[in-house]
Write a structure and sequence with these properties.
Strand order of the largest sheet of chain A: 4-3-5
Oligomer: homodimer
Number of strands of chain A: 5
Number of helices of chain A: 4
Helix content of chain A: 25-40%
Distance between the termini of chain A: 45 Å
Radius of gyration of chain A: 17 Å
Largest sheet of chain A: 3 strands, mixed
Shape of chain A: globular
Largest interface: A-B, 37 and 38 residues
Chain lengths: 141, 141
DNA sequence: CTACTATCTCAGAATAATTCTAATCTCAGA
DNA sequence: TCTGAGATTAGAATTATTCTGAGATAGTAG
């Protein structure tokens, strides 16, 4: 359970998906794994380059695209104009607070299973987006 | 049941929401009501100005924002980078085909048994996004 | 019907998110 | 090590959206 372990887990995940492990790609994915807040590219970049420059903007974009393509990260579209990213690729839903804008993961089993067979389409995945006020903002309004 | 009727319905909807009825705003909303395909701003604009110029781009944006603010249209976010718009403001879900990109409305009652009380948040609305292959693309793949 | 004014529209500029370019560099297999 | 496919980069380009400020107009009150 040394510090090196988390590093190795991330390296192995990248390798097992056939991705070359570069410092930039590692940093982007490690950063995303350490967060729960569904950051935008801008937020990831700011975080990475806080102390000294680690990655360019273009690389964060291409890294995220590579990670997305192999299924290590998911894109989250909840607001106009910005993509957010999520290293939690297990099935789950999202709650979006209309006041503070925060995004919370909602457990998959919050909803009972759906009747996707009734659709005239081949459904491969689905997710629920819930909007409202988060625990902090309830009462402030 | 004359042609004027549909026109009047739209005019009355705009008025009842306190919106001034301008030719541009009318055209944007009428166009959106006549479609089922959740168009982007670009598509609406192209449609409106097909024969002769009706509206500028900026006006389509501001019209849609005005219509959205009063609840006559909904914004649909399913793909990165573009907002789509929907004049169907009754509760419903969306299906998004990963092959042809088409978007279909899915009846509200396709899903049941939601336990929103179990969330530690104040849920005000929700919707399901389903992804997969539409009827046309099933088999083509 | 006319005048008024708050609101709307417009072209073009500005901003913001993302992608492209093409030169340079580097990971990882042999 | 050597090597080459693939990655990184700064900056330019592209695309979606918003802003600006001046001129037009819907709808109301007289």
């Amino acid at each position: 359970m040394s510090k090196g372990n988390l590093r190795d887990v991330i390296v192995n995940r990248l390798k097992s998906k056939g991705l070359r492990v570069t410092p930039q790609r590692f940093a982007v994915y490690a950063n995303l794994c350490s967060r729960r807040d569904h950051p935008t590219v801008e937020q990831i970049l700011k975080d990475l380059n806080q102390d000294f420059p680690i990655s360019s903007q273009a690389t964060v974009y291409t890294s995220l695209q590579a990670l997305r393509k192999v299924g290590l990260v998911k894109e989250v579209l909840l607001e106009e104009g910005v993509s957010r990213y999520d290293a939690n690729v297990e099935p789950h839903h999202h709650f979006h607070c209309r006041q503070c804008g925060s995004i919370k993961d909602v457990p998959w089993d919050t909803f009972d299973s759906f009747n996707l067979e009734r659709l005239p389409y081949l459904a491969e995945s689905y997710e629920v987006t819930i909007r409202g006020l988060c625990d902090r903002c309830t009462g402030n309004n």
